[in-house]
């Protein structure tokens, strides 16, 4: 497995700064959440070399259900409060995990996943889903990812019904 790390925080921030307008353009004029999250997950996966899986889960009937993603086969349903995704949704906060084996209750959908970041999708203060990004490298995600993926989540939320 190739170990990809971004050489500096500025390199990572510049990738996101270039990517955000592209994401805005992808979702501009489109209100379909599936279409938008399909394109956003593809754009993120292409831009973030250290991401092994990028996707969305949506809240349906009290649990998170997999939506558009890029990567290996995913867990279909995740209970609120369970795993990294369920915790981010329950607590309405970004959860960054440097080593998923150290996260209590981590759900092993992909045994190659080593680190993860999950950003809740909020509309009117309510969680309607999460943006989930995994890496096959330990400690891939930091405050820069949290900041910019939060902005991506905001773009998605603004374009959702």
Give a summary of the structure in a few sentences.
This protein is of the alpha+beta class and 161 residues long. The chain has 4 helices and 6 strands; from the N terminus they run H-H-E-E-E-H-E-E-E-H. 37% of the residues lie in helices and 25% in strands.
Can you give a write-up of this model?
The protein is an alpha+beta fold and 161 residues long. The protein has one domain: 2-Layer Sandwich (Beta-Lactamase), CATH 3.30.450. The chain has helices spanning 9-27, 33-47, 83-91, 143-158; strands spanning 53-60, 63-70, 77-79, 95-97, 115-123, 126-135. It has a six-stranded antiparallel sheet with strand order 3-2-1-6-5-4, with helices on both faces. The protein starts with 8 loop residues before the first helix and ends with a helix.
């Amino acid at each position: 497995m190739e170990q990809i790390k971004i050489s500096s925080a500025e390199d990572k921030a510049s990738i996101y700064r270039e990517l955000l307008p592209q994401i805005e353009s992808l979702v501009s004029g489109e209100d379909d959440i599936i279409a938008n999250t399909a394109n956003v997950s593809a754009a993120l996966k292409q831009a973030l070399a250290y991401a092994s899986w990028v996707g969305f889960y949506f809240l349906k009937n009290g649990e998170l259900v997999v939506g558009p993603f890029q990567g290996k086969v995913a867990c279909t349903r995740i209970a609120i409060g369970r795993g990294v995704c369920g915790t981010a949704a329950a607590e309405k906060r970004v959860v960054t995990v440097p080593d998923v084996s150290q996260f209590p209750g981590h759900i092993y959908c992909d045994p190659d996943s080593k680190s993860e970041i999950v950003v809740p999708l909020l509309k009117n203060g309510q969680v309607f889903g999460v943006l989930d990004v995994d890496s096959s490298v330990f400690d891939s995600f930091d405050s820069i990812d949290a900041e910019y993926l939060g902005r991506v989540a905001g773009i998605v939320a603004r374009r959702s019904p």
